[in-house]
């Protein structure tokens, strides 16, 4: 008999899985942190605006052909930082802040940028004792750096575009030794003795004493006497007291959430920086959140959270973290579009608030700025748990310029194979090979186009990925050949949690190579997921990714063929018994980096390695198709994304539009939502409307939960089958158009599915619209997403623009709000075009 502890563990795992497969539950918010429960977010949010302790030391300024460098000094703790500002080709500015001389390196995000951005020369225009003005390559764009308190303003002519640290919320928690360790206590005692001796015998000035203790020069920048001014004004005793209180603040060296304790061997390492955007009222981006397209202010609630999590049946209209994170925010006015890209892969919170521009425009900038001091302003504050500050300001000025600028940094959407733009049929799970043949034949029998059939986790041998259940799928190649004869493909799921089983080839190889992520104690990190106890390969390790890619070759992935493609799920990663259903933050990756430093990169690397495996298996001749649930900036280079485990509800149908729009703005064009909803069971009207909507979204796949009734398109009666057939055929009729749009996205970075304001940037009426959208620059779509709707009102933008109803060819002159009567068969009445679609 198994030990009691072992039996209890399996009982608990069975309970966890049962909770995951029931369809009557919704998200348990108590499983996920609020800002107030996240020690670093709470600590950062308690900082009072307008009292910045940082000043720029202008006498350390160095200007070369690539950048401007100088030191920032925290007047309270005397810790110096290194600021580096670069002008980049394509009308961008890069801002990096790190410790001048950290105790150990801090994490800097690799592999996301496609290359090191090319810089443009900077030139000092003017300088005085309190500020310096620098021109970018364009004489119209300038940077004004104010010394005390530190702030950086970006101007175009006499227009202030953006201010950095204007609210004084720059916080950079430096690496330090813990005060209550034996080593630290000895160091402190020796230091105190030396201070006493020095005070008795030294007659040198306090400034000379301080300069002797100053930090050594880094990057050829010498610390100055200013940064080592001796003691705070309130005296040494007060300073020591403050530091001791700070060290003892809850959550700095250890943090407990529910039953999980996070050890923090590096102590507090969080960073924060604020950006002010005068004249801006509308900001967008930072997916993934189940919320409106236009971001809301967060003053009265939590900030938007970016931390990849497996959120079971997520709620709508709140800033909770979901499966992916792209730290790109866009700001839009009728005159200009700007972007802020915060390159940090740790847990991040984004605060958004409204302000008045006059409250933050001070000092020398007043000499330049034109316009009303009462102009509205949006303030954005980024807060991350670790790493460095590495921010890119994208200066536009047009929306398309922002897309080009961001694509130059992180790459464009991978150009997908044509079949992947067609219709996909999936559920958890098709039972066996006979079931697959039956579904395949059903599409032919009912004359509904379909290019891909999917298999979820039950197709494997006991949740061992890269295998097939020998009883249910004994002849996978024969099954694949049957699909291939009809020019159809198959997608199987390959998740990144590996069953711990000494007889399982994949586990044995990962363990023997030492490729598993480690615990803080150095053993292989294990958690619970679909197979039971599972290990988690360290995808941050290039050698591990290369090995993983090799597993997709035809001689390794038994039963695979050239028409088999891959789906990466649960790659946040999902750990059923982990804190917040994910990996422990103090788990250790290649190079000794903690998961807290790079958590949001895990899914990015899983998809990268899988896509590379498909390329390699074909000798580089085939374009891959990989669907991922978790993602980060740059994930667009490797395939498609879907919005995760939605529900068969009208609200979820509606929210799919702004969620896909937000992903497109952040570079990920190939996105869609599960048609019909993953959880729960849609009635016929909801299912039909979802097919009609999904047919006009980039990724078009029906998917359903294991515990829901079957919902193949022909199971809802003849009339509904006809309506679904018409919707799917509309998709196929436009496939050349879709393919062209994706080629343009691949070449330019411009989103396939885009908000109206992208095409009509001066039309204020379009700025908040997120129930209709553009496909490319020519086709406007307004899906029917209200239950029982008898009509919709579509806004036709563009002064004097001529729009044609795709169904009736009737001409309409914009701008106008056009009421359109609809019936259940009105799939074509939801779209308008304004010029030849492929011009």
| Overall radius of gyration | 28 Å
Q: Please indicate the percent range of residues in DSSP E strands (runs of 2 or more).
A: 15-25%
| Uncertain residue ranges | 1-8, 10-19, 185-198, 200-237
Largest sheet: 10 strands, antiparallel
In total, the number of strands is 41
Number of helices: 17
How far apart lie the N and C ends? Answer: 72 Å
How much helix is in the residues?
Answer: 10-25%
Overall, the morphology is globular
Mean pLDDT: 90
Structural class: alpha+beta
InterPro entries: Gal_mutarotase_sf_dom, GH, Glyco_hydro_31_AS, Glyco_hydro_31_C, Glyco_hydro_31_N_dom, Glyco_hydro_31_TIM, Glyco_hydro_b
Domain Glycoside hydrolase family 31 TIM barrel: 414-741
Pfam family, one: Gal_mutarotas_2
GO molecular function, one term: glucan 1,3-alpha-glucosidase activity
Would you write up a description of this structure?
- It is globular, with a radius of gyration of 28 Å.
- The N and C termini lie far apart (72 Å).
- Helices cover 23% and strands 23% of the residues.
- The chain has 839 residues and is α+β, with helices and mostly antiparallel strands.
- The strands form seven sheets. Strands 6, 7, 8, 9, 10, 11, 14, 16, 19 and 20 form a ten-stranded antiparallel sheet that branches.
- Keywords: Endoplasmic reticulum, Glycoprotein, Glycosidase, Golgi apparatus, Hydrolase, Signal.
- Belongs to the glycosyl hydrolase 31 family.
- One of its GO terms (biological process) is carbohydrate metabolic process.
